[in-house]
Amino acid sequence: MKYVIVGPALSGNMGAASMVTATVRTIGERDREAEITLLSYYPDEDRRQGWLPELRVLDARPARLGTLINGGAVLWRVLPPLRKLIARKVPEVAAIAEADVVLDQGGIAFSDGREKFLVFNVAILLPALVLGRPVVKCAQALGPFRSRINRWTARAILPRIDLIVARGAKTREFLDGLRLDNVELGTDLAFMMGVPTEEEVAGRGPVDEALARLAGPQLTVGIAPSVVVKAKVEAAGGDFDSMMVAVVERQLAAGRRVLLVPHSFRSDPTKTHNNDGPLVNAIAARIDHPDLVVVREQMDPEELRYLIGRCDAFVSCRFHAMVSSLSMGVPTLVLGWSHKYVEVLDLFGQADRSIDAAALDADGIGGALERLIDDREAVRAAIDAAQPAVRALSGAQIDRILEIARSS
Predict the structure, then answer these.
(1) Residue range 239-255: average pLDDT?
(2) Domain match, 368 and 220 both
């Protein structure tokens, strides 16, 4: 069967890469003849990565998506004689038209405060809806829907989707407020990526270098800063970089090792969107200590997940860094900005381990982190106990995707 993934790109966003990796591998195990296409807004970078050679990558950069792909879908529908020409000039339209199911794998959509993304939220769905293809909104955060424009748009689009997988109880509550009958509860597909072993990632230069510096019994605290959280802190008048420097220095002064991880990374430092690399480098430049370990190169999702799993505690400003940390059983503190973090932490009984970006300060983070470290054995046990149920909830949507694809 044929599957088309819309919404993410692999490069720069290891969260999206984790979801796509889990999808490609899990569907590939259950459908040996699967043909999977990704419509990416970083197509050239994604092709160069070569992480998933079985994945076909096509060009869905915003300008092309908004004009050629959406316009081509309309022409495909109303002017059948043009279909061969459209397939040659805009293969993305042909891929959608031939798909047994289209998978929307955005991270958060139709959410108050993010109205500037509504056009994109709609544009990635319209071609499939115009062409009458089944659409699954894979597990993601949606809502709230109090804003008039957001609520109106959500009510116009979401009922037309075959299946919406709410990524947690809060998203389900928001969607129930729209009185939709196409919603099921699930959780993030990245939980299906598994638990990488050292044998699977060893022999890769950047990983081996980091592992060598993480050797020994010293307690390791991992930190994944984010340019998104930085922007929210600074909009509230805070100094995110100084805050992170203070948190790192406090851990180093306590005799602990610190791993700084850019979970979203692009090789070009001038590209600041979805790129935490320059931020991590700026924080590290202000700290001179032998126990500070900094990831400065591109890694694939499995490599990053394994390194995160080597930590004794983890502070995450990125949603999927949190998913990897929880997947590896690491006690996790989240510095976030949306219900999307808390509803997933809640599945592990850790909903109280989150601090909103608007309330961040170095002392608050430091105190919460010390409590997490003190309680780490009990926290790890709670996370490990919840793993089977969370992975089953994540994997159930693959069964539903295959069911919808077979019936299309």
Answers:
(1) 98
(2) yes
In one letter, which amino acid is 193?
A: M
Judge whether 303 and 204 are in contact, CB under 8 Å. yes
Q: Determine how many CB atoms are found less than 10 A away from the CB of residue 89.
A: 12
**Dmax (CA) of the chain:** 71
Residues 175 and 216 in one domain: no
CA pair distance 277, 225, nearest whole angstrom:
9
In this prediction, residue 48 has a pLDDT band, given cuts at 50, 70 and 90, of confident
Angle between helices 319-327 and 376-407 (to 10 degrees): 110
Give the containing element (helix H, strand E) for 395. Answer: helix 376-407
Does 361 reside within a domain?
A: yes
Residue identified by tokens 């293969």 is 91
In tens, the pLDDT along 4-15 reads 999 988 877 777
Residue 407 belongs to a domain: no
Encoded tokens for 49: 């990565």
Q: Please check whether residues 213 and 182 belong to one and the same domain.
A: no
Cβ-count burial of 40 within 10 angstroms (0-12 exposed, 13-18 middle, 19+ buried)? Answer: buried
pTM of the entire predicted model = 0.93
CA dihedral 330, 332, 338, 342 (to 10 degrees): 80
What does each C-alpha distance from 236 to 88, 240, 262, 296, 357 come to in angstroms? Answer: 49, 10, 23, 29, 9
- The reply to whether 80 and 212 lie within a common domain is no
Q: What is the CATH number of the domain that holds 21?
A: 3.40.50.11930
Q: What is the mean pLDDT of the chain?
A: 94
The residue whose two tokens read 């969607």 is 175
Tokens of 376: 């780490």
Categorize the per-residue pLDDT at 260 as very low, low, confident or very high, splitting at 50, 70 and 90.
very high
Residues 6+ apart with CB under 8 A from 17: 8, 10, 11, 51, 300, 301
